[in-house]
Design a protein that fits this description.
The protein has 18 helices and 31 strands. It has about 700 residues and is α+β, with helices and mostly antiparallel strands. The protein has a five-stranded parallel sheet, sandwiched between helices.
Length: about 700
């Protein structure tokens, strides 16, 4: 896109002519103060030698603070979708700057495209500032839309969550209508005793009090068939009480007048101080004598404030939640085990036109002539569907218990693939119980696919470039690995020179500095991020002489890290791994303890690499020696900054026909589940970061 084209389609605001002068001033101000969100992540920009600050932008950690979406290199399909979601969250005016590739299909065309170099980035930012100053406001701005932004709806059976359809219909198992919900959302079980749309305690309209006792079941028909059938759904023995104030009791749902909590159902026979067994408006004959209501115990009993059904004669702890039981004074009608022997109650004249069950009017139903032998009037609970409320006890009674005994919802939360402090392209899924991690796993959205089944053949030089580009955080290491494997397949002896090895050690230093910058970003140590990033950019392509000049600065950084007690306190004991953990390689294997040990292992490797370069000469970028039309199989192993990588390949007439790559990160990513389980969220993120995972080096 040229500078003559204003931004009028993607990121502009509505233009109003009367404010043209103000808009021009705002546009110029926005153009001078650009902030960018880097995709896949800042560590990739540093690995390519890109300094966004020097180019005239600042780096943003969230899309809400970004003006520019800076995309570096080609994106995978999954990263493309992630970029679209991030772009949709950016406030207008917003722009897209593409470096070293084509704009992903989920996004609008880039406003400016450029090559992967610092000079190209600086020029692109200048062009972008000019475009933004001219076109930050447009008369007819277009909305951004992408398929990933749309919620997919699926249809699920309330009783059989395994029945899922793309279209409305009926469940093949029970015949119920399928219910629409967001795809991927968990479906809770549905109790057929609780029918939808029964808000008994909130609505008073006749429509809200319809009885659904089966298909076509009418109360009048039920009573014509006899009283037992008519009361099939009228459960006896339930009243409603407050979990915190058990002395509050009533025969219908509602709220506690003391604390406002929703009342919960309580079966008859439970201990309730001051329990009133009279049902208003029932018209039942009173018991012939008070002796018919006998109290089995009086005085003081002990109950749980959260589980009023727990009752005993002496102090103790609640078997449900472990809380201390509290004394509760008994009353004449409050003791457990009240026996209401009503004998043969004659209910002639029991008119339902005056009888109200929890707010449901039963007009026109007469119970004349029904004999209730031994009828217990502990309370009528009419199963008219969901009562429309749930207390915290009901909500949490079936939830798993945390280590502290509390019951909380477990939620699954994604971190990444663009998250401050974690490498870009890594998606971390954690199941949280409050701020504690129950379980977790990590996946790569940018990892490579092994080439055993890859039918694409390429010449040897193209394969070397492909492997180097596919691993942007360690391109020299994998370039060297490919060269060694191909040369051995061609029957060539290993190059005795030390230039390749020096280049590998230089990359190790730069990679460890990149990890330090990422660690500083995660812990909030801005000084560490800035200093490590500056050193990484300076020595990425440095000569032997320049590396010697940078050595004092590197040693100063190491000394400062050792004098930072807060850093040690934050890393000590986090992400601990047993020494016998299988699959460990590189710094993770050499410092199998905690994150603090892994930090010092990398600092030691920086010093060792500096000594190696000082002794063995100038770093030399690995290049492939002539293989012509050679054929054969070759294998090689290289100690990359993250651990050993092994490559085996087949060469036919100078072309790579298949290969097999084994990397350290492919093994280390499996450690995430062990490291995060049972940790606080912040500690879990630090533990994952201490592994120094490169999502590009995860093989699938």
């Amino acid at each position: 896109m040229t500078s003559a084209q204003p931004i009028t389609t993607k990121g502009s605001r509505q233009k109003q002519p009367r404010f043209a002068v103000l808009q021009a001033w705002v546009s110029r101000a926005l153009a001078r103060d650009l902030s960018c969100l880097i995709i896949p992540g800042p560590e990739v920009a540093l690995a390519y030698g890109l300094d966004v600050t020097a180019a005239g932008m600042c780096s943003s950690a969230t899309p809400r603070d970004a003006t520019v979406l800076l995309i570096i290199g080609e994106l995978s399909e999954q990263m493309d979708e992630a970029a679209a979601v991030l772009y949709a969250q950016m406030p207008r005016p917003r722009t897209i700057l593409m470096l070293g590739g084509k704009t992903p299909p989920s996004l609008p065309d880039a406003d400016v495209s450029a090559d992967l170099s610092q000079k190209a980035l600086t020029d692109a930012v200048e062009r972008l500032q000019g475009l933004l100053a001219e076109g930050a406001f447009a008369t007819y701005p277009e909305d951004f839309d992408a398929s990933v932004l749309h919620v997919k709806i699926e249809y699920v059976c309330p009783m059989h969550p395994d029945v899922v359809r793309d279209e409305p219909g009926s469940c093949p198992k029970c015949g119920m209508d399928l219910v629409a919900q967001e795809a991927g959302k968990a479906t809770s079980g549905h109790d057929h005793e609780h029918h939808e749309h029964h808000e008994h305690h909130e609505q008073d309209s006749p429509q809200s009090h319809e009885h659904h006792h089966g298909q076509g079941h009418q109360h009048g028909q039920a009573h014509e068939q006899g009283h037992p059938q008519g009361h099939a759904n009228h459960k006896t023995g339930t009243d409603y009480t407050c979990p915190m104030h058990p002395e509050v009791s009533q025969d219908e749902p509602g709220r506690c007048p003391e604390c406002g909590m929703d009342l919960v159902p309580r079966e008859a026979g439970e201990v309730t101080p001051g329990h009133n067994h009279e049902r208003p408006g029932h018209g039942h004959n009173e018991p012939e004598s008070p002796q018919d209501h006998t109290n089995n115990k009086t005085g003081t009993d002990y109950t749980c404030p959260m589980h009023p059904e727990v009752s005993q004669d002496e102090p103790g702890r609640c078997p449900e939640c472990g809380m201390d039981l509290e004394p509760r004074e008994g009353s004449e009608n409050g003791a457990s085990g009240n026996n209401h022997d009503h004998g043969e109650h004659n209910h002639s004249g029991h008119g339902h036109d005056e009888h109200s069950h929890a707010g449901h009017e039963h007009g026109g139903h007469s119970h004349g002539g029904h004999e209730h032998g031994g009828h217990s009037h502990g309370g009528h609970e009419h199963d008219h569907g969901a009562s429309g409320f749930m207390s915290m006890i009901e909500v949490t009674k079936d939830l798993p218990r945390s280590a502290d005994g509390l019951a909380m919802d477990w939620i699954e939360v994604p971190f990444g693939p663009v998250f401050p402090g974690l490498p870009g392209g890594l998606k971390l899924m954690l199941t949280l119980d409050g701020d504690g991690v129950i379980e977790g796993n990590a996946t790569s959205l940018v990892g490579m696919t092994n080439g055993d089944n890859d039918t694409e053949e390429m010449n040897a030089e193209a394969f070397v470039e492909r492997l180097a580009l596919a691993t942007p955080l360690a391109p020299v290491s994998y370039r060297l690995l490919a060269c060694l494997a191909i040369e051995r397949a061609a029957g060539l002896a290993d190059n005795p020179g030390t230039g390749r090895a020096s280049a590998l050690e230089r990359e190790r230093i730069a990679s460890h500095l990149g990890w330090l910058a990422l660690l500083g970003r995660q812990l909030g140590f801005t000084w560490l991020t800035q200093r490590a990033s500056a050193l990484q950019l300076d020595l990425r392509c440095a000569s032997q002489k320049r590396l010697a000049a940078l050595e004092p600065a590197l040693r100063t950084l190491t000394a400062r890290l050792g004098r930072t007690p807060l850093l040690k306190a934050r890393l000590k004991g986090i992400g601990r791994l047993p020494a016998d953990t299988p699959g460990l390689r590189g710094p993770v294997a050499l410092a199998a303890g905690d994150a603090w040990a892994r930090l010092w292992q990398r600092l030691d490797e920086i010093r060792t690499s500096l000594d190696f370069i000082r002794t063995n000469g100038e770093p030399e970028l690995p290049g492939l020696r002539i293989t012509d039309q050679a054929s054969g199989r070759g294998e090689a192993t290289v100690d990359t900054p993250r651990g050993q990588a092994r490559l085996s390949l087949t060469l036919q007439s100078g072309r790579v026909t298949s290969y097999r790559l084994d990397t350290a990160c492919s093994h280390h990513i499996g450690l995430v589940a062990e490291l995060v389980e049972g940790q606080e969220l912040g500690d879990a993120l630090v533990a994952v970061g201490s592994l120094d995972l490169s999502p590009w080096e995860v093989m699938s």
